[in-house]
Amino acid sequence: MTTSDKQLLADAPSSESTLTSTHASMHMSAFRPAFTSADIPTTSPMNIEQHAAKAFWFGDADTPLLAWYHPPKTAMRNSGVVLCPPFGHEYMVSYLSYKHLAMQLAEAGFPVCFFDYDGCGDSAQSDTARVAAWQHNIRQAAEQLRRLSGVKQISLFGMRMGALLAAGLATELASPALLMLAPVISGRAYVRELMVLRGMSGVGAAHKSNEAKPSEHSVSDDQLTGYTFCASTRAALSELNILNLASPPAAVMIAARDDISGQEAKLATTWRRDEYQMHLITTPGYAAMMTEDAHESSVPHAIWAEMCQWLIQQIPLQQVSLQDQQDDTTSTSANMLTTRCRIRHGEQVLQEEIVQFDGMVGIVTQPSPTATSTDIGINIDKAKNDTARPAIILTNVGANHRVGNHRLYVTMARTLAAQGFTVLRYDKRGIGYSQPTPEEQENDVHGLQGVEDIGSAMQFMQQAYRQPSFVLAGLCSGAYLSYLAAVHDPRVTGLVLMNQLTFHWRTGNVIQTKKAATFKSTQFYFKAATHGNTWRRMLRGKIASRKIFRNLAKKLIQKLLDHIRHRLAHFMKTHHLLGPVARNFKTMQARGVELVFVFDANDSSIDLMTKHLGSNAHLLQHRDSLKIEVINGVDHTFTPMWSQTYLATMLAQHLAKRFP
Q: Who contacts 90 (Cβ-Cβ below 8 Å, separation ≥6)?
């Protein structure tokens, strides 16, 4: 171990688990390059801004993938690391943790690539069988990391499904090290687990919205909590089993999950070989990361520190100084990283551009200008914007990064752009890859810094895309921040509020407490009371009937008082008897702001609207500039895929009509 290695180990956070020293010296005679073509360019990481991660597009021209490159912040090591993400909900709640792992590896001298699979995150979706596409994506990410950093060896990290895919490619890519956290051992068991969870989600029956046919709104077996999970994907995953793979010629580290017992110890025993190190740890942290909501997720710092310490022992530093790496630059960052691409959406081709402003990261989606080439990275001029139409800004849902739950914001952005709008989906401070808040906080969902961030986003779009006016849109907390930003900003000409649960958030409020105190809509309980099964469950003590009855009583009394106050205000022709929320909306309507409210029919956000604006928002008199859409058979985040398509299409058509 070099002196630099010892210093890095000394500086790293300590862990209760002790690193094994057996076979610490890796046998490398089995190494073979995965790519031998002489025309693959290799450059030093110094030709990209050294101390900042950079987002870029790569992969096939018609189905580009989004990735983050983390250049090493110290002298570079002999291997890069590709981070293979998990799937679906596990990807969403672990996104911030993956970013922290990438940053920590870069601090230790490893160039890192963290990317989104085909059809996941911000990436485009191809027609290729998904598992085969995801395996190919890992190969593409490995090649891209070689090009960007100049390293020849690529180590792999994966969690859950990402570990299953990485394990299957470690030998092919000649990876010197393979790191896995809570790996899926059996693809067949994993598929069964996901299908059971799907059945428990409560979103599975055929439903209808208020403007579409019921037959169009079924949830098939090919959908999994808002994501495509078709039979071919399930079959391909079921064919994978790590225990059936030969042990890769690499050092292997496995971190076991701490919520339930897994097969990590069995895998470690099966794969143990004398010439390579096998290291199994049981450091806690996985369960605290893998939570129901992203805002509750905790970064497993202890696991990341232990993995970095172990990998430092396996991968030596390159025998070249940091200055030599910088002097060896052979191309510029502009030639290495691509921030614009073409993406197909149905029959249309759209342009997406990665943007950064005021410490925040976003993606701008536009109708594509006329061009003959569809290559990634071509020098596309910005689309000629129709400035009569406002740009649309999508604000984060809770602590989920810019793609939104189940990629809802990706679907919305591309559907709206196909109607001719320019759309920005971005991460406010403290979310995703944007910088922390001024208070150095992450996952700050309702903080007023979010209102300032929306203002910064509008200013950026004015300067960079010549957009003078905006429609602000958001779901849940994103709706709350959009509402606050729209009240007094004349640049806002439209406001889309989806399942907004509060108009007042006080410092010190706790999301978990608010969530526990939140009930379904009054309509939901009245409808449920007509079902015999509801009464049977109540008699068995499976329903918290006392809490529900107390809540309903409070709502009915408050509804009566609000109705009296609203009638008095109407009779006396004064706004002074109205609450501040109603006055704010009346002010916005007087300013000409288009208002769109979207609700899950069973969501308590309907009662919130009724409380402040009256039944069916009757206090707002300019009905031509108001749309209220209530959708049956969905949930708070529009999990069913039909509802995501319906929502995006409805908004695109309505806004196109209101802003011709």
A: 159, 160, 161, 290
Q: How does pLDDT run across 228-247, given as a tens digit for each residue?
A: 899 999 999 999 999 999 99
In the chain the first and final C-alpha atoms are separated, in Å, by 67
- β-pair partners for 281: 255
Tell me how far apart the alpha carbons of residues 192 and 161 are, in angstroms, rounded to a whole number: 13
In whole angstroms, what is the distance from residue 134 CA to residue 194 CA? 18
Helix (H, G, I), strand (E, B) or coil at 177: strand
Q: Is the dihedral of CA 534, 535, 538, 540 positive or negative?
A: negative
| Contact (Cβ atoms closer than 8 angstroms) between residue 317 and residue 72 | no
CB atoms within 10 A of CB 358: 14
Residues pairing with 251 in the sheet = 177
pTM above the 0.85 mark? no
Q: How many Å apart are CA 277 and CA 23, to the nearest integer?
A: 5
Cβ neighbours of residue 268 under 8 Å, at least 6 residues apart? 252, 254, 278, 280
Residue 354 bridge partners (DSSP): 363
Query: Taking the CB of residue 37, how many other CB atoms lie within 10 A of it?
Result: 7
**Residue entry with tokens 């710092």:** 301
- The string of pLDDT tens digits covering residues 170-202 is 999 999 999 999 999 999 999 999 988 877 766
DSSP state of 393: E
Q: Give the strand order in the sheet containing 79-84.
A: 54-60, 63-70, 112-115, 79-84, 153-159, 177-181, 251-255, 278-281
Tokens linked to 488: 């007094």
Residues in the chain: 660
- Quick one: 94 exposed, middle or buried, by C-beta within 10 A (0-12, 13-18, 19+)? buried
Q: Extract the tokens encoding 582.
A: 């109603």
Task: Work out the burial of residue 20: count CB atoms within 10 Å of its CB; fewer than 13 is exposed, 13-18 middle, 19 or more buried.
Answer: middle
Q: Give start and end residues of each alpha helix (H) in 573-636.
A: 580-590, 605-613
State residue 211 phi and psi, 5-degree precision. -140, 25
The closest of 177, 378, 354, 187 to 279, measured between CA atoms, is: 177
